[in-house]
Amino acid sequence: MDFVGFQQELAHAPATERHTHNRWEPYVDNGGTSLAIAGADYVIVASDARQSNGYNINSRYDPKAFRLSNDAILATAGYAADAKRLVEVLEQNAQMYYHKHDRVMKASAMAQMLSNTLYGRRFFPYYVFPILAGLDNEGKGALYCYDPVGNMERVVYRSFGSASALVQPFLDSVVGFKNQRGVDPTRLLERDQALKIAVDAFTGATERDIHTGDWLDIFIVDRNGVTHEKRELKHD
Amino acid sequence: MFRNQYDNDSSTWSPQGRIFQVEYASEAVKQGSAVVGLRSKEHAVLVAVKRSPNELASYQKKVIRIDDHMGIAMAGLTSDARVLSNYLRTEAMRSKMVYGRALPIGRAVNAIGDKAQSNTQEYGRRPYGVGLLVIGHDDTGPHLYEFNPSGIVSEYYAYSIGSRSQSARTNLERNFDTFEDMSLKELIVQGLRSLRDTLQQGKQLDTLNTSIGFVGKGAKMTILDGQDTQEYLDLLDEGEAMDTE
Amino acid sequence: MDSITLRLPHTVERPAEATNYEPTTRISQPTVTGTSVVAFKYKDGIMMATDCLASYGSMARFRDETRMTAVGKTTLLGMSGDTADFQHMKHTLNNLLTQEYDMDDGQNLGTRSIYKYISNIMYGRRTKIDPLWNSYVIGGIDNGEKVLGFVDYYGTTYQSPTIATGFGAHLAQPILRKYVEGHEDEITEEDAIRILDDCMRVLYYRDCRTFNKLRRAKVTAAGVEISEPYALETNWNIAEYVRGYGPF
């Protein structure tokens, strides 16, 4: 079929079909993986820093976990441009909250605000899968995870992103003690165990998922504040 | 009976070339309690005396944070200061969002200067009844600006506005050439010394009525109130003790 | 008077009812386009190269285009994609710089600020579903630090010691990563030029929308310098041994 013929066919095609031809998709998946584990008095957040587009690696160090305040970390996965804008919006809202109330926004307030922010774009969503980590009012580790339109859930551990299908079952086994006899499934991990598991999860994910690798950002939040650590993953 | 025919609104000149509404607004600034601002080559400092309307009331806030790199102190109508500080805060956020850079202090002050000016030219409007000292730190170093209801904006080494502020200015004029190389602590104490000169007979600076704000190279905008000011008030007293020895 | 409608041969008549129900879309296709940008950090700053071709589809339409421009004193902007959108971007940036100059207050817009500003324009346009059809590479020195960043029509941004757009992402990026990654502060200008020319030569051999007339640019502490066009030495001797693509 020649070009003119193709165009004519397009013009006479049913509306829905034509739109799938014409419409420019305003989203990309930039790959990468995030995970978080909550403990009795801490949370640990880990995200790899590779940004990719299809089979191309854009950058080996483009962080996707962000420190929002002295006790809240946001880990993301999905479309990097939306994630970065979302973080800016949250930071600005948190600053307005601070000015209004003379108090730093707590993780629980930040969690609800994030849900509202995402839902505010229900019909043109931020294509981001966020995990918000902080401490709750009793000082326990608190994790909130979301879908792109703001459905929120408090969890003990979670992984999102390109290797989440690899990492989440691993966490189910070693953090959630799922389908095991003689263990207390509500038991929380000690901090050094959680750190080891997070690192192991990413070492494994880097082997099996082409979109995960290069560098690992690890944040630990506890009552003393936030610590950040950068570890090397395989670059292949 | 004599009555001023030229002060009904800010868009009317008097035959002597004055705009009375603007001058009245400046009087409102002089009625507010004093604030002092000064800077060294690395820091800018604000100190202020807070007033409370009566024994049962809390003290009125004088120093306001705008962003990590900027803060203001006000003399005059608190509510007008709040409007201006909200505007400055959104402008500072906008600069961060659009250019990823801290809003340059001079531009921030000129922006509110322009807002104030339009109130002095448009019929039916009222000039702001507040004066501000704005401190901040940007790519060109620390800054201290004065804003007043006329829309005039000026940069200073050290300055003071509010009631009896002339006494503080006299003190600052005598000493400002030594501020350049001062440490942050010395600068704050120097500010408090000037501020004390504005107090009425029998009044003292104490942890209840003193407010301190500072910003500078590597120091985010910080406001000290209450017990946090004690350290500097002590230093102020020590300095006096040494002077009299 | 009767009017005559002259119809161009390729005009497509759309049924009236179809146009009524269509959503508003402002997507256009790129028309006149430039291909890869190649850029990386080296000892003294940033090196970048583009060729001088602006294609109209597969036609080598404009053969003396410059796809790099200085933005202010220490920032360099390289472009892939639609040349008209690039002109629009240059116009917008020029307005910004003029505004800044008129302020005359000793402040200056660093590379990071310009990068942020361009990124905001690109992300803003994608959010309006009216993208500027470009990929941009922004390089410069900001506060004594080398900055090299990328933004495309999705508003996707990243910084990296080596960046290549378009075909360059496939063909030049592996070469750059091999020679540059981890050595950004050691590579001399001579080596940088050699690496750059190697990348551009490979692209000239394999990307059909390239042209053997290119410009090189660098940003150092001294400012931005964009070279005059030059050609690369090429060798097509093996071409006659290649079998299987033509009639022989």
From TrEMBL, chain A:
Highest taxon, organism lineage: Eukaryota
GO CC, any one term: nucleus
CDD domains xrefs: proteasome_beta_type_1
One Pfam family linked to the record: Proteasome
Keywords linked to the UniProt accession: Cytoplasm, Hydrolase, Nucleus, Proteasome
GO MF term list: hydrolase activity
Location within or outside the cell: Cytoplasm; Nucleus
Principal location listed in the UniProt entry: cytoplasm
PROSITE patterns found in the cross-reference section: PROTEASOME_BETA_1, PROTEASOME_BETA_2
GO BP annotation list: proteolysis involved in protein catabolic process
Function statement: Component of the proteasome, a multicatalytic proteinase complex which is characterized by its ability to cleave peptides with Arg, Phe, Tyr, Leu, and Glu adjacent to the leaving group at neutral or slightly basic pH. The proteasome has an ATP-dependent proteolytic activity.
Protein family membership: Belongs to the peptidase T1B family.
PANTHER family assigned: METALLOPROTEASE TLDD, PROTEASOME SUBUNIT BETA TYPE-1
Record text on subunit structure and interactions: Component of the proteasome complex.
Protein's UniProt name: Proteasome subunit beta
Automatic annotation (TrEMBL), chain B:
One GO MF term: hydrolase activity
SMART domains, sorted: Proteasome_A_N
Family affiliation: Belongs to the peptidase T1A family.
Subcellular location: Cytoplasm; Nucleus
Domain Proteasome alpha-type subunits positions: 6-28
SUPFAM superfamilies documented for this protein: N-terminal nucleophile aminohydrolases (Ntn hydrolases) (SSF56235)
Pfam families: Proteasome, Proteasome_A_N
Glycoprotein recorded as keyword: no
Organism of derivation: Coemansia erecta
Bilayer-crossing regions: none
Keyword DNA damage: no
PANTHER family: PROTEASOME SUBUNIT ALPHA/BETA
Subunit field text: The 26S proteasome consists of a 20S proteasome core and two 19S regulatory subunits.
Keywords per UniProt: Cytoplasm, Hydrolase, Nucleus, Proteasome
Classification via InterPro entries: Ntn_hydrolases_N, Proteasome_alpha, Proteasome_alpha-type, Proteasome_alpha1, Proteasome_asu_N, Proteasome_sua/b
Protein name: Proteasome subunit alpha type
Primary gene name: PRE5
Automatic annotation (TrEMBL), chain C:
One Gene Ontology term from the biological process aspect of the record: proteolysis involved in protein catabolic process
InterPro entries reported for this sequence: Ntn_hydrolases_N, Proteasome_beta4, Proteasome_bsu_CS, Proteasome_sua/b, Proteasome_suB-type
Matches recorded under SUPFAM superfamilies: N-terminal nucleophile aminohydrolases (Ntn hydrolases) (SSF56235)
Species of the source: Coemansia erecta
Alphabetical keyword list: Cytoplasm, Hydrolase, Nucleus, Proteasome
Pfam families, sorted: Proteasome
Subcellular location: Cytoplasm; Nucleus
Domain of life: Eukaryota
Family: Belongs to the peptidase T1B family.
Cellular component, GO annotation: cytoplasm; nucleus; proteasome core complex, beta-subunit complex
Job of this protein: Non-catalytic component of the proteasome.
Matches recorded under PROSITE patterns: PROTEASOME_BETA_1, PROTEASOME_BETA_2
Any one GO MF annotation of this record: hydrolase activity
Protein name: Proteasome subunit beta
